[in-house]
Design goal:
Chain A: It holds the Pfam family BPD_transp_1. Chain A: Belongs to the binding-protein-dependent transport system permease family. Chain A: It is found in: Cell membrane. Chain A: Its main location: membrane. The complex is a heterodimer. Chain A is mostly helical. Chain A has 13 helices and no strands. Chain A folds into two domains: about 70 residues, no CATH class; about 240 residues, MetI-like (MetI-like fold, Orthogonal Bundle). In chain A, helix 3 crosses helix 13 and helix 8 crosses helix 10. Chain A is globular and about 70 Å long. Chain B is α/β, with parallel strands linked by helices. Chain B folds into two domains: about 180 residues, Periplasmic binding protein-like II (D-Maltodextrin-Binding Protein, domain 2); about 200 residues, 3-Layer(aba) Sandwich (D-Maltodextrin-Binding Protein, domain 2). Chain B contains 19 helices and twelve strands. In chain B, the strands form three sheets. In chain B, strands 1, 2, 3, 6, 11 and 12 form a six-stranded mixed β-sheet that branches. A four-stranded mixed β-sheet of chain B has the order 8-9-7-10. In chain B, a hairpin with a 2-residue loop joins strand 4 and strand 5. In chain B, helix 2 packs across helix 15. The longest helix of chain B has 24 residues. The radius of gyration of chain B is 25 Å and the shape is globular. Classes of the chains: A mainly alpha, B alpha/beta. The interface between A and B is large, with 40 and 48 residues.
Chain lengths: ~325, ~450
């Protein structure tokens, strides 16, 4: 089945129509705002530009939240109230408890390890001769989607029986060291940690770039003064660098934590949630859409939402603080 | 170019409008239709007179299979003027729910699992089959088959394709070279397996990796043994949850499967240890048969499409299949299988017309002529079936001696049939205890 421009033409046309309609709407909006009453102009403009966004936000975010919360107290097809049964189910089913435990493992390990890796790397390559090359190397995985990264790592962990050629890097190394090839993704909780490695691989670059900028922003006078006072490199790191970049570290930590909570693609691509590697986002999809258990899926979604809220609030606070400091 | 701001605005505003109008009129352009009076269209006279209408069809059938299916109904579409818009998706099971919930239901959907169709029938989204469709369905299929699409007293779907999931694939050459014979009873099957193991060949290949759906080939093992060991009645009770999932009879069946799938002397030819079953994809799992690295592979009739190009699938070729032998002679020759059912979410006349046509022998013959397909339609012309395994499958399904049962996991609630049963079996092969696995699945059975 090849690509035929003629056959794809209708799709392209739809694209053009969509873009044209969008431009049309914006054009009309601009015209209306331009022709609007001259009094209280600011108010008009604000209402016109914020209105559509607010409407979409209401439809796309607020309404789903309300509906999902309501559904989480209803039965499998969402037509009868069952009280808190879905939440009881969530915290009593051994299978779901493993899901919750895995999510916890992800949230504890992924952000911390990714941020630490990024920070250590940023400090190590700072002002070195090959800084830009070294940085691009670590940053490159950021350009790969989670699904793409998962497929790459699937090959890293790939298993072939002992005696045959190993196609997985990890098992090849094990064989070279004289060991038996392992089925890496089968045994919990190691498999979850190996999945977390994928997220770290992707996110460490982000942490590194942001933290490196923060390190460069430390005034040279401070580091020089510390050096003159005879501070060693570790002392410099613990007493000067880390405290100076701490606000940035928290921002990075929180950003990656939010990413981690909704991790779905990595688990789905690498194990499909098998072998006790499932996480909330994956289980929520399974319950709601594959199993038709709308209530249970919604309860998981609400729980995930509740977990994300404090992180978002912290994020907003630290952002505001950072702005005030400037 | 106009230069005053006003005329620029006019141009800027009218350009999108022109594009919109032009694009829309292009897209609504009519497709090529055959002359309804021509001889080629004679078969479709019953359904003519729907020019300019279109019917949306959504299913999980994709790629080559999807193309063949669309070729099979192409003549029908052009003669009746119904534009059949087909969409195949790998995420069908989840997305059909999303589409229906979103008020975006397709006109027709092909359900590979009667349990899923039942869910939509119970929620009132799927529509009962209209009279004409019912007549065609009753003329074409045995009661067994229609029962799977019947909810309450109403028929909600018509069978489409079929497959047999009790096939044991083997290499006829390897069998004759070593003096092995196709076993007729379960005892012979085990004797054969032991003989192969003694000759230094792992008798069985297995692999249950299937992405999201990992585990389903293992459930087929349990279902096949359940049906053969305990008979169709107990099998039905088990599927309907009239006996618990961790009943002793199920545990006994698991025991028998255990003796094969978790027996290090029996598996896993060409792939590694017992645990390699969970990481070997079901598509790759049977291939070592061609290299004589394993003797047998239990997999559906659709596995015929997985053999590499140049493999002769025939009774005297490189690969062929036999029906997994019976365990208890009291229960006849049991066969487990699957298939799709056409369910409708709309009852516009053109939708009914397509539904009716898909239930005819004419469609079945045309689809069979495109290759790699058969159905349980009683009037399907067996001569159109090119592949010997398709013919074998169709003959088994048509044989009145055959005790046919639908793939049990497809009839269980999705939370079990597409969830914990798959996951439980995967963990079981990975080392979980039998009792632990069965009670895990039993506990997950939805209460309401």
């Amino acid at each position: 089945m090849g690509f035929s421009l003629l056959e794809e033409l209708p799709k392209l046309l739809w694209l053009v129509i969509g873009v044209a309609a969008f431009t049309g709407v914006i054009g009309v909006l601009l015209l209306v705002v331009d022709r609007g009453p001259k009094t209280r102009r600011d108010w008009w403009q604000a209402a016109f530009f914020l209105g559509p966004a607010a409407l979409l936000l209401l439809l796309g975010t607020v309404y789903p939240v309300v509906r999902t919360t309501a559904l989480s107290f209803m039965g499998r097809s969402g037509d009868a109230w069952v009280g808190t049964a879905n939440y009881v189910w969530m915290f009593t089913q051994p299978e779901i408890l493993i899901v919750l435990r895995n999510t916890l493992l992800w949230v504890v390990f992924a952000p911390v390890l990714a941020t630490t890796t990024g920070l250590v790397y940023a400090v190590l390559v700072d002002r070195s001769r090959f800084e830009s090359v070294a940085k691009s190397l670590l940053f490159m995985p950021m350009a790969i989607s989670f699904v793409g990264a998962s497929i790459i790592w699937k090959f890293v962990y790939a298993f072939e029986p002992a005696g045959s050629d190993q196609i997985g890097v990890l098992n090849q190394v094990v064989v070279w060291l004289g060991g038996e090839p392992q089925q890496w993704l089968l045994n919990q909780p190691l498999n979850t940690l190996l999945l977390i490695a994928v997220l770290i691989w992707v996110q460490a670059g982000f942490a590194m770039v942001v933290l490196s900028a923060a390190i460069k922003a430390i005034p040279a006078e401070i580091t020089e003064a510390a050096r003159i006072d005879g501070a060693s490199s570790p002392q410099l790191f613990w007493r000067i660098t880390l405290p100076s970049v701490w606000p940035t570290v928290t921002v990075v930590l929180i950003t990656i934590s939010v990413q981690t909570l909704k991790v779905f693609d990595i688990v789905r691509t690498m194990t499909g949630g098998q072998f006790d590697t499932s996480v909330i986002a994956n289980e929520m999809y399974n319950q709601a859409f594959r199993y038709g258990e709308l209530g249970q899926g919604s309860a998981l979604a609400v729980f995930l939402f509740v977990l994300v809220i404090p992180l978002v609030i912290m994020q907003m606070r630290s952002n505001r603080r950072a702005r005030e400091q400037q | 170019m106009p230069t005053s701001p006003r005329s620029r605005i006019t141009v800027a505003a009218s350009l999108p409008l022109i594009l919109l109008a032009g694009g829309c009129s292009y897209l609504s352009g009519d497709s090529q239709a055959a002359d309804p009076e021509s001889a080629d269209c004679e078969d479709f006279q019953e359904w003519q007179g729907h020019e300019g209408t279109s019917v949306e069809v959504y299913a999980s059938i994709r790629d080559e299979e999807g193309e063949r299916m669309q070729r099979a109904w192409a003549d029908f579409a052009s003669c009746t003027g119904i534009d059949i818009q087909y969409e195949g998706s790998g995420e069908f099971e989840a997305q059909v729910q999303v589409k229906v919930d979103g008020g975006n239901a397709p006109d027709l959907a092909f359900f590979p699992q009667p349990g899923l169709l039942e869910r939509f029938a119970e929620s009132g989204d799927a529509l009962p089959a209209p009279e004409g469709v019912q007549e065609k369905a009753e003329a074409g299929w045995s009661e067994d088959w229609l029962n799977y699409a019947t909810v309450g007293d109403e028929l909600y779907g018509t069978p489409l394709g079929a497959n047999v999931k009790s096939f044991v694939w083997y290499s006829p050459g390897f069998f004759s070279d070593n003096g092995y014979e196709v076993p007729q009873t379960w005892d012979e099957l085990i004797e054969l397996s032991d003989a192969m193991a003694d000759d230094g060949v792992k008798p069985w290949c297995a692999g249950i990796e299937s992405g999201d759906a990992t585990g389903w080939p293992a459930t087929d093992w349990v279902e096949n043994v359940m049906l053969r060991q305990n008979g169709p009645e107990v099998y039905d009770q088990w599927v309907e949850h009239e006996i618990p999932f961790d009943d002793d009879q199920v545990a006994d069946a698991m025991e028998r499967v255990d003796g094969i799938l978790r027996n290090p002397d029996y598996v896993n030819g060409g792939h590694g240890e017992v645990q390699s079953i969970v990481t070997t994809s079901f598509q790759d799992a049977g291939l070592p048969i061609l290299d004589d690295e394993c003797g047998m592979y239990l997999m559906g009739s659709f596995y015929a499409a997985q053999w590499p190009e140049g493999t002769t699938v025939a009774e005297d070729g490189d690969a062929f299949a036999f029906n997994l032998p019976p365990i208890n002679p009291d229960f006849g020759t049991p066969v487990m299988g699957g298939g799709e059912f056409v369910g409708a979410f709309a009852d516009r006349p053109e939708v009914v017309a397509v539904q009716e046509y898909l239930a005819t022998a004419d469609y079945a013959d045309r689809r069979a002529a495109e290759g790699a397909w058969f159905s349980a339609h009683q009037d399907l012309d067996l001569d159109t079936l090119e592949s010997p395994t398709d013919r074998l499958g169709a003959e088994i399904l048509r044989d009145s001696e055959t005790v046919f049962r639908f793939d049990g996991s497809d009839n269980m609630p999705a939370a079990v049939g597409a969830g914990t049963f798959w996951r439980g079996m995967t963990n079981w092969i990975n080392g979980d205890e039998t009792a632990e696995t069965l009670s895990y699945i039993e506990d997950s059975w939805p209460s309401s």
